[in-house]
Write a structure and sequence with these properties.
Layout lengths: L1 H10 L28 E3 L6 E3 L6 E5 L2 E3 L5 E3 L10 E2 L11 E3 L1 E2 L12 E4 L5 E2 L5
Antiparallel strand pairs: 1-3, 2-5, 3-4, 6-8, 7-9, 9-10
Length: 132
């Protein structure tokens, strides 16, 4: 393989990969800085998506195509919202970008100076603050 690579280098016939890694859904459209044989290209998931467990974000340029990576990006999910002494029943959508209004349960008063709206962040974490 080394002799073949040296021969290809000497003749100028080095394989090149495309600048974008094709076929990766919900990944940022990132141009790979080098597209020569043996180059590495690491992708990232687009905002609001997280890398799935066991997926590989780094691809290797082999013979004119990107190989070995298998990046899978899943929509970030915040899971069920839990706020002490509050009604979160309106929070049925839990994926990134979702918003919901939360109110204190009967017999409890909102003592926080902030909004009662929570938002599921691109990182999959509920953002908001309500103290009842």
């Amino acid at each position: 393989p080394l002799l073949l690579l040296l021969l290809l280098l000497a003749t100028g016939a080095v394989a090149q990969c495309p600048q974008n890694v094709p076929g990766v859904s919900n990944a940022q459209s990132t141009l790979c800085s080098s597209t020569a044989e043996g180059s590495l290209c690491t992708l990232q998931c687009a905002p609001g998506f997280l890398q799935a467990r066991d997926s590989i974000a780094t691809y290797v340029c082999t013979s004119d195509s990107w190989q070995q990576g298998n990046l899978q990006c899943e929509r970030a999910n915040c899971g069920a919202l839990v706020v002490a002494n509050a009604d979160t029943s309106a929070c049925t959508t839990t994926t990134s970008g979702a918003t919901c209004s939360v109110s204190c349960n009967t017999g409890f008063t909102n003592t926080s100076p902030t909004s009662t709206t929570y938002t599921c962040s691109n990182a999959g974490v509920w953002q908001g603050s309500l103290t009842c």
